[in-house]
Design brief:
Largest interface: A-B, 47 and 50 residues
Order of helices and strands of chain B: EHHEHEHHEEEEEEHEEEEEHHEH
Low-confidence stretches of chain B: 160-165, 322-326
Number of domains of chain A: 2
Chains: A alpha+beta (323), B alpha/beta (326), C alpha/beta (305)
CATH class of chain B: Alpha Beta
Protein name (chain A): SCO2521 family protein
Shape of chain A: globular
Mean pLDDT of chain A: 90
Organism (chain C): Streptomyces muensis
Order of helices and strands of chain A: EHEEEEEEHEEHHEEEHHHHH
Largest sheet of chain B: 7 strands, mixed
Number of domains of chain B: 1
Largest sheet of chain A: 10 strands, mixed
Strand content of chain B: 15-25%
Organism (chain A): Streptomyces muensis
Radius of gyration of chain B: 22 Å
Oligomer: heterotrimer
Low-confidence stretches of chain A: 1-7
Number of helices of chain A: 9
InterPro entries (chain B): SCO2522-like
Protein name (chain B): SCO2522 family protein
Chain lengths: 323, 326, 305
């Protein structure tokens, strides 16, 4: 049977989706402004950390759901509970929102009074037995019509923040948001967390599977995924800017103009693991070996610096020849 | 991230705890009409309340040999302002004493809206999480836009699709209905001249959360009781603290549970309060502190917050409106 | 920048021309997104040759997004998903070309606060992402037109550059209808002002595109009789006069697209292959589209008349 009301139900699966985008503001926000932006609740603190990089984390807000759980094989299992959502701002420049929830292996066959769900925030209970595999695959594939939609919740929060009166709604350069969907299967407490896979798909979609010890909260997994999503966004965005013809083919001052925003707004953002729970920080190592996130970033940064250096060398000559 | 030497306080906020009694017993709630009916009427109230207060104490004694019970009394200074503390409070205390009751804490209703410059009602509003009707897959119902909170799905507004016919009336549906619905829709506030007026049930829900020790502002306790040092009570309600301790009780204002004694005309209001509490996502830190400490004292609280509040609705003493007509 | 493509009536080649403009800009290196807001009869999937990808997106298009059924509208990457032989191999250095299709089953709908909110969110999101966003609106003074007028009047969109292209055919009735769509009592300008737009600014953000214009000097007509030729020149002149009287004269025109069988009959993107190799399309059409595409963002053509 299920846990009695009030007892924390043991979850077997945690799922989430992170959206990452550039903050629509010409200036990066300072710590005070960041705290103001992320103050989703009047009475709760925004966590602000300024070392080793500026990182602000909003309080969590809840969305009530009562619908089918995503399922890859068409199984129809109803789930009721709350999905937690939170937002992160890194260096006052990159905005992320995560929606996530945990699932226990089984739940009651009737809906409880709502207040009982609210005291277990971020938990969605299945009616009956949870089809773990199908649900995990369903979450990674994305919600079908009428299924619990993490994307809708995280996008809703992101849209709300981007409308904030504090922002001037001007981006220093154009860029695409990315989404990272993740599932974490629970393993016994004390075992070591591991990364099963990280997949880069089309259209800015990334998926990730983890194994997460029971004593590590789902919010820590959300934090790790935010960190990975942020660095993946940096790689994706800078790569796209370099691929663009107007940087590849052109020369002259317009190269400086095109690469300027990368140097000013992005190069200093690379700081893997800066705000990741120590119990999960080692998961980065896997991606550092293959494909080598930091290696790729160093390469991209070097290309940018080289282009700018070449330009700086070329400029005086041009100046001479045209005079 | 606690195993490191480096710390940033802004990165690790904490929720302070508050002292907690076993039971917060409310002895009454005074509105202008009660005051206008005179001290005699108030005395009759207290005489009736005394009987039930004894019953509540007897009930609490079943849970604990030495129950910590604090009593409180609420005066409306939000919807209507009448009399002055200097005039009113001694009168209330005198009538209570006559009935053998002691009022430990006295609160002003306006402090459920704003206390010590903290907008409590506003904060609680941001914590409303609507109970999702079946079929809710992630679109967030905007409570803060409508100002109403229901226990189910409303009758659809008579919307016409471009070509579709006008549909007939459809009934509302209570989400947790058993066979049949008891649908309720509660107005949380109204706006007048750009000013927000919180509804009586919404302020009463804030009041319940305060009594249950579940309110915090940026981790700090709110509505902290102050002793009244002066000789006479002030002539202006604004000069009275939001929550005043009137006795030398050791029992804290907030408690694991609440019991409210009130005339049965308030039944609808309090039902609305339960509806609001059932859809409020209270401070997780505070919730955990109450759960742990009540469990340690072997009187664990019900998981759902609304279940921690009980009531006695008594018959109003001597219905004066009928009496006056004769 | 946002470009809204409107037209007085159907059959002006609005969708196919605006799709070609999007294509030209993507070739030039811009990241471009094309939105099919023609809810009554979405055609963009056919123009971009992405029928299969369209099937897959089923009912997750713009219509489903705006009424709140899906969290975001489906996106089709044209380069990756097109069945068109030439489009599938875009030249290196070109920008992204993304299509957001309408829904097959979606009809028109009234603007509510919620779908207005979603419309603003979508336009802002795309504005942050793409160099150019082309929104194809259904013909006439439709709900789609009302919605984007309302959306662009919202304070959060105040600083977003939005320009309007009004497509019309080169006939007396179309000239009058296009003028009325923009300047009439229930026209775009009046509707915009009702919603809080600044009249002068809105007027200045609207330019006309004359579509399917027969050029009397074209070699196509080299065989016609002198009488016919004279008549054509006269009529063309009369139409210019008429357009000018209606306030949509030369200074208000961003460009003209010549009468082009490929656009009229097949509604497709015209590639350089069509012009150079198979020669089914006219060089003049390619030139006209190319010129229009450049003028979209050339402020010189959008200065106050």
């Amino acid at each position: 049977m299920t846990a009695a009301p009030g007892q924390p139900a043991r979850s077997v699966l945690a799922c989430g989706e992170v959206r990452t985008c550039l903050l629509p503001s010409v200036q990066a926000l300072d710590a005070r402004a960041a705290a103001q932006l992320l103050r989703l609740r009047n009475d709760e603190h925004v966590r602000v950390s300024e070392r080793p990089s500026m990182y602000a984390l909003s309080p969590e807000i809840l969305t009530g759901v009562d619908c089918r759980l995503p399922a890859s094989n068409g199984t129809k299992v109803r789930g009721v509970g709350t999905v937690a959502a939170r937002a992160v701002l890194t260096e006052g420049r990159l905005l992320q929102s995560t929606a996530y929830f945990s699932l226990p292996a089984t739940g009651p066959d009737i809906r409880r009074p709502w207040g009982q769900y609210l005291v277990r925030p971020g938990l969605v209970e299945p009616f009956g037995k949870l089809p773990q595999q199908a649900t995990a695959e369903g979450v990674l594939r994305g919600a079908g019509r009428g299924e619990l939609d993490l994307g809708m919740i995280s996008e809703g929060l992101l849209a709300q923040l981007r409308r904030h009166a504090l922002l001037d709604r001007r981006v220093p350069f154009k860029s695409s948001p990315t989404r990272l969907r993740w599932v974490a299967r629970r393993i016994p407490a004390g075992e070591r967390a591991s990364l099963a896979n990280f997949t880069v798909a089309e259209g800015g979609l990334r998926t990730m599977e983890l194994r997460l010890p029971e004593d590590v909260p789902a919010s820590a997994a959300a934090g790790l995924c935010e960190d990975l999503a942020l660095h993946d966004w940096l790689l994706t965005t800078v790569q796209h800017m370099l691929d663009n013809s107007r940087i590849g083919a052109i020369d002259g001052p317009s190269v400086v103009e095109a690469l300027h925003p990368v140097v000013v707004h992005l190069l200093h953002l690379w700081m893997p693991r800066a705000h990741v729970d120590p119990a999960l920080a080692h998961l980065w190592d896997v991606l550092e070996v293959k494909p080598g996130f930091s290696r790729q970033w160093e390469n991209l940064s070097r290309r940018i610096r080289d282009r700018l250096a070449l330009q700086a060398v070329a400029m005086p000559q041009q100046a001479l020849s045209t005079s | 991230m606690t195993d490191t030497a480096f710390r940033e306080t802004t990165a690790e906020p904490v929720t302070k705890s508050v002292p907690l009694a076993h039971l917060s017993l409310e002895l009454g709630h005074l509105y202008m009409e009660d005051f206008e009916a005179g001290p005699k009427r108030l005395g009759e109230h207290f005489a009736e309340v005394r009987v039930w207060a004894d019953a509540v104490r007897a009930s609490a004694a079943r849970r604990s040999k030495r129950p910590r019970i604090s009593t409180c009394f609420l005066i409306d200074d939000y919807f209507t302002r009448f009399s002055t503390p200097a005039e009113l409070i001694p009168m209330i205390l005198k009538e209570a004493e006559k009935a053998g009751l002691v009022i430990d804490y006295l609160a002003r209703e306006s402090s459920c809206a704003v206390a010590d410059r903290i907008e409590l009602a506003e904060s609680v509003m941001h914590r409303l999480v609507e109970s999702p009707p079946p079929g809710s897959y992630g679109s967030r119902p905007p409570v803060s836009q409508t100002g109403w909170l229901a226990n189910g799905q409303r009758t659809p507004s008579t919307s016409r699709s471009a070509l579709g016919a006008v549909k007939g009336w459809e009934p509302p549906q209570e989400t947790a209905a058993r066979n049949h619905s008891v649908f309720m829709d509660v107005e949380l506030w109204s706006e007048k001249d750009g000013k927000r007026l919180w509804s009586c049930p919404f302020l009463a829900a804030v009041w319940q959360l305060a009594r249950l020790g579940l309110l915090r502002h940026l981790g700090e306790p709110v509505l902290v009781p102050k002793d009244w040092e002066g000789e006479d009570f002030p002539h202006d309600w604004d000069r009275l603290p939001p929550l005043t301790r009137l006795s030398d009780t050791k029992a804290a204002f907030s408690a694991y549970r609440t019991c409210t004694l009130m005339p049965n005309r308030f039944l609808a209001v309090e039902d609305a309060v339960r509806l609001i509490l059932d859809q409020t996502d209270v401070d997780a830190g505070a919730l955990q502190q109450v759960a742990e400490r009540s469990a340690a004292e072997r009187m664990p609280v019900p998981a759902a917050v609304a279940q921690r509040a009980t009531y006695v609705f008594y018959e109003e003493p001597g219905d004066s409106s009928e009496a006056e007509e004769t | 920048m946002l470009i809204f493509a409107a037209s007085d009536k159907g059959g002006t080649g609005r969708s196919v021309t605006s799709a070609n403009l999007a294509y030209h800009r993507a070739l030039a290196g811009d990241d471009v997104c094309y939105l099919d807001f023609d809810f009554g009869s979405p055609t963009a999937a056919a123009v971009f040759d992405v029928a299969d990808a369209r099937e897959e997106t089923e009912d997750r298009g713009l219509h489903a997004y705006l009424i709140g059924e899906v969290s975001e509208p489906a996106r089709i990457d044209v380069w990756a998903d097109t069945e068109h032989q030439v489009l599938r191999f875009p030249p290196p250095g070109c920008g992204r070309l993304v299509l957001m299709p309408g829904d097959v089953s979606g009809g028109e709908f009234a603007t509510s606060d919620d779908n207005l909110r979603r419309c603003v969110d979508l336009l802002m999101t795309l504005y942050y992402e793409f160099d150019l966003v082309v929104v194809d609106l259904s013909a006439g003074r439709s709900y789609a037109v009302d919605m984007v007028l309302e959306a662009t009047a919202q304070p959060e969109m105040r600083d977003v550059t939005a320009r309007w292209l009004v497509f019309h055919r080169w006939t007396r009735q179309h000239v009058a209808a296009a003028a009325s769509l923009v300047f009439g009592r229930r026209g775009i300008v009046a509707g915009g002002v009702d919603r809080g737009h600044d009249e002068a600014a809105l007027r200045n953000a609207i330019r006309f595109v004359r579509a399917a214009v027969p050029d009397p000097e074209s070699s196509l007509w080299s065989q016609v009789s002198p009488t016919q030729s004279a008549w054509m020149r006269k009529t063309d002149g009369d139409l210019k006069q008429l357009a000018s009287t209606h306030g949509i004269g030369y200074s208000q025109v961003l460009g003209s697209v010549p009468l082009e069988p490929v656009l009229q009959w097949r509604e497709q993107l015209i590639t350089d292959e069509d012009v150079l190799d198979s020669q089914i399309a006219n060089e003049a059409t390619w030139q006209a589209l190319s010129q229009l595409a450049v003028r979209l963002t050339d402020d010189k053509y959008w200065e106050e008349a």
